[in-house]
Amino acid sequence: MSSSTGRPLTVLIQGTGLIGTSVGLALSSAGWTVHLRDPNADALGQAHSLGAGSKDAVNADDVDLVVVAAPPAVTAEVVTASLNEFSRAIVTDVASLKENILRQVHAHPESARFIGGHPLAGRELSGPTGARSDLFEGRPWVITPSADQHAAQEVVERLISTVRADKIVMSAKKHDESVAATSHLPQIMASATAARLIALDSEALSLSGQGLRDVTRIAGSDPDLWGQIIEGNAQALDALLGEVIDDLTQLRADLHDPSANTSAVATDLVRKGQSGQARIPGKHGSSAQRYVSVSVVIPDEPGRLAALFDAVGLLGVNIEDVSLEHSPGQPVGLATVFVIPASVDTLAQGLEDSGWVVYR
């Protein structure tokens, strides 16, 4: 099929979890005709009630595009079934692993209608209730087409541009190796850190700060989903975990050796981490930029956070990032707002003039 007419397409989304429902919300708001399918009736009903699409049956000949948003373990199976059922539709998926799925689908005689895809977007929440129509805005969306799939690629690129994601084309092998380092290893490290908290008593946990919350935020992710992802990318993760284990083994050995220069080893590890963190791209894939923080005291009252954001907006300052921390036992919280260096004085002075308590 061709998408040259530019008309809104009819799409079937197979799977109504966080990603599938978010795709449905984004496409529905753009005027596409969206149908939903999920063996989980509760998830399907929730996605439908949120406005992600229709749960009515769809005529196979009317479908232009099928988006498979099923769990990784069954993605290839659902892709193959979709190629069989929807004989004129392009099929894509959103699974976080690509090489094994492409290998399984390649044997299908209509595999040229399949374009592997992966939106690099998500939340620590799972299921349709965590979905957002703007989840993909400014986020990378990888596709793994072959050289002779121009027509199919054009359709999937329309999907990507409609949800306002940033298209990236790469091989399936390069994709899987890359996400092992940028997504899968961080999940393992966050979960391993959070698992250490199980044995802590409440007094110890009362000392939790923003650093712990930052490191463990994604530890609340879906365990079953991540079990499938980690198993599916075992080879790439094995090499990375070996490197991490080597670093930790060296540090631990020095902690046990009174004659070792433990401080130097720890400093070197933290310094390397600092250098790596500085390489993470900024918004929209731009070069990483240094942001400056301004901390603002917020009364623990309804509407005060929204009032702060309104005040910042009136000053013409763009918030690059924000973190929130509650003060234990106090009726206030602390919002740390990150802005470009050139905006710091305008932000701090403007908020102070408006009656906010500001620290910088």
From TrEMBL:
Provide the alphabetized UniProt keywords.
Amino-acid biosynthesis, Aromatic amino acid biosynthesis, NAD, Oxidoreductase, Tyrosine biosynthesis
Reaction(s) catalysed (UniProt annotation): prephenate + NAD(+) = 3-(4-hydroxyphenyl)pyruvate + CO2 + NADH
The record, for Pfam families, names: PDH_C, PDH_N
**GO MF:** NAD+ binding; prephenate dehydrogenase (NAD+) activity; prephenate dehydrogenase (NADP+) activity
- Residues annotated as coiled-coil are none
Q: Which GO terms describe its biological process?
A: tyrosine biosynthetic process
| Domain ACT: start-end pairs | 293-360
**Pathway(s) served:** Amino-acid biosynthesis; L-tyrosine biosynthesis; (4-hydroxyphenyl)pyruvate from prephenate (NAD(+) route): step 1/1
Q: Which SUPFAM superfamilies match?
A: 6-phosphogluconate dehydrogenase C-terminal domain-like, ACT-like, NAD(P)-binding Rossmann-fold domains
Domain Prephenate/arogenate dehydrogenase span(s) in chain numbering: 7-287
Q: What is its EC number?
A: 1.3.1.12
Q: What is this protein called?
A: Prephenate dehydrogenase
